[in-house]
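Per reviewer request, we include the raw input and output of the structure prediction for the construct analysed in the revised manuscript.
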Amino acid sequence: MNVFVNEKRYEVENNTTVFELKESIKKDADVIVYNGFIIKADYKLKENDKVVFIKKGEIPKSEDMQAMLMSRHTPFVHEKIKQASVGIAGLGGLGSNIAVSLARIGIGKLLLIDFDVVEPSNLNRQQYFIKHLGMKKTDALEKIIVDCNSFVKIEKKEIFIEENNIIETFKDIDIIVEAFDNPVSKALLVNTVLSKMKNKKIVAASGMAGYFSSNSIVTKKIKENFYLVGDGENEAKPGCGLMAPRVAIAANHQANAVLRIILGEE
């Protein structure tokens, strides 16, 4: 019978248990992840089960690191995720949070697009730190992603998205994420994709300002290739600013929409 330990195939006897496997492979493991779930009780192994053994405080070998990073996933989803490429247009409150979430699930490639630098007012909701002030957002976010998951392929473009560069910019990307603050740029990117890039999927956002109910932020499938996240109402304006909780909720709606597209759960 075949099972996978840290993504490597092992042949074991029928009726072998997880704890028996631990004794033969890594006796000192403190954490056992069995098919995406940390277990305390023993289980009898089945064909193609996935097991990860982890010793707390131990830095794993490079070849084992990716398996450990992905160990809490549902089995066999990572194979699809690591083949996908996602372009994120805008690396502010939405884009920086989306990028980190996608990196943590093990996305294969991220195209990071922004022409701006990190400044103090970004720190109230964006995934940057004081040490990143003055850095290009593309460079700062790349460093953050590498610290989360060094296996993600990253491409950076410090450009302003305009009608004449959208098609070329995203031609090799599977899924496009609109994460702009500027409503004009939002509309331009979405409309260009819908009219000229119908083979691409786009996930956009509108309405996540303030501290209104979390439950009013929803994901809607507007067209076959167009998904919209937000409450559709509460835009940023004087007296209604952008705050970390609702922005991050919307960002992770977008990241989850991307994940569901990749896994065919649309």
